[in-house]
Amino acid sequence: MSSQYPWPAMRGIAYGGDYTPEQWPRETWLEDVALMREAGVNLVSVGIFSWALLETSEGVFDFAWLDELLDLLHDHGIAVDLGTPTASPPAWFFAGHPDARVVTRDGTVMGFGARGMASHSSAAYRVAIVRIASALAERYAEHPAVVLWHVHNEYGVPVGEDYSDQSAAAFRTWLREKYATLDALNAAWGTTFWGQRYGEWDHVGVPAAAPSVVNPSQRLDFARFTDHQLRQCFIAERDAIRAHASQPITTNFMANQSWTTDMWAWAREVDIVSDDHYLWAADPEGEIGLAIAADLSRSVGGGKPWILMEHSTSAVNWQPRNIAKRPGEMARNSVTHLARGADAILFFQWRASRFGAEKFHSAMIPHAGTESRVWREVVALGAALDRLDEIRGSRVVADVAILWDFESFWAQDLEWRPSVDVSHAERIRAYYERLWRDGITVDFALPGQDLSAYKLVIAPAQYMLSAADAANLDRYVAGGGTLVVSFFSAIVDENDAVHPGGFVAPLRDTLGLVVEEFLPLREGSQCRLRWSHDGATATLAGDAWQEDLVLSGAEIVATYVDGPGAAKAAVTRHRRGDGAGWYVSTRLDAEGLGILMSAVYADAGVAPAGHPDGVEVVVRRGEHADYVVAINHGDDAATIAATGVELLSGQPVEGSIDVAGGGVAVIRTDEGGGR
């Protein structure tokens, strides 16, 4: 690992989780540290929701209990990720500053008793968070237990947008800085529509609930403003800590599970990317959503090792149906995060709470105690991670990128789009799942990034695309890249205005076509496509959407058999410079995506890995060795090709290894040295 990359000053892979000793008597603390040593825990996060105990009234601090705790943890060899408790202001704060409460879009003032309920635009809140962050950093910057700072908790969850008076004033300030003049704002928002033109800055407000659909350009800017305000709160705390402390500083994202914050922008402000991830119980293949979140966390951090700050040992408590993890599933989840670049495996939380809103959330020590299966698996995982410590600092390298653009998602999710069946989350999952099943590792990227390192780039849902980003994609293709663009992409510019020249116009030269008209299908309707490419023919199935394409150089790969687009082009390929641009104008099912991507892989020079179904294999590359990580999500043993040493067992591997059903294997190979 490069010495230039900040990482907590500790050995091996970090293992542990959120620790809330304030919920327990002192005698339990002594039991906890003994059990942490038994489990192999070497890092815990503390203080995240302790504001009321640390600052008992405005400007009055009580650090005695935290002093005692940090000393105890350090004496037992356990490092600390010290949190700032600003996600949950105390009752005294709201009593003194009632105008700091969040207001919902419909005007409801949010009450006390939850978390994340302060207005990110409140001046009083900004002062208070800097005060507590400064006090903590000044006192504990030199404490030997503290190796990492954890600012706030899950920004934007559960509250992101705030429609209070403070927010409205801050929004106007933000707009002035962005547009400088009302003429520029009016032009960007298209305020000549519905007579919305502004003649005074004071007349510009937040996009609160209205009789009909509110200006979508205003809504998009308000989403950007919200993200900015949340991030400014983080920066204020970060800078207050940095004035006293030198340890790395992070905050916990919720990759692929919260859309409020732009992780690309946030990743530039943290020293280390960290993420909280929880399986969605309704998803029978939650391991695929987990892989998406892990790859996104790695990608926004530029490929550097990252921290899994939270996941669960078993069930969570906040979903409609909270499904317990089966034996071995916790280990598989943990190793998957490790495989995809995490160098820290942490949980929420250490000991299950007896009271409060999360008392039914699983923990490393569950309510059943240390005689439970969960505890035995926690101890076994700690031992396994200790045997894998040499992986730390190695990286994942991918040949394929999927475009992931939060601002485009914010715009696409607004009202009055052509079909409720068109979802960016669904299309990204569909394309990612196809590559996951084919054993192809994926990075996520922005459309404006340097994409030259990738053989293949996929844009499953790039509804909003600026002219500059379109030009970047065109250069990528002309330079030899293969680009796949799915329907309802390149429709609007950065102000949510339809591009001059119509739908897909900025990619006309790249794809060799434009879209004349959307042809959404009725609910439940399906369509057939006749595929004909490189001598192979097939019938594909689609649903939800068709388009009327006007070709200007693209070759037809598939044609609609039926539906409103019958006999028209459905899938196309266009040679552009040394590369090729593919366009898919319908929602293909899994089988259809398999046929499509087989042809695309051949175009791009990407080879599916050919692993057995349900087996996930990712390679981490180190300076002196590579590490093949195999996770078998199936019930039966599976064989994968590998040569080296299996680190969990210490056994040599010659040519292949059998991975037990529900098991994992990590093989150190003799290869290494990066890409």
Give a quick rundown of the structure.
This protein is an alpha/beta fold and 675 residues long. The protein starts with 13 loop residues before the first strand and ends in a 7-residue tail after the last strand.
> Which CATH first-tier class of the largest domain would you pick?
Alpha Beta
Oligomer: single chain
Q: CATH H-level name of the largest domain... which superfamily? A: Glycosidases
Biggest pleated-sheet summary? 10 strands, mixed
Strand content: 15-25%
The CATH architecture name of the largest domain reads: Alpha-Beta Barrel
- Domain module count: 3
What percentage of residues falls in helices of 4 or more residues?
25-40%
Q: What is the radius of gyration?
A: 26 Å
Strand order of the largest sheet: 14-13-15-16-23-22-21-18-19-24
Helix run count = 17
| Outline | globular
Write a concise keyword list for the protein shown above.
Immunoglobulin-like; 675 residues; TIM Barrel; Rossmann fold; alpha/beta; ten-stranded mixed sheet
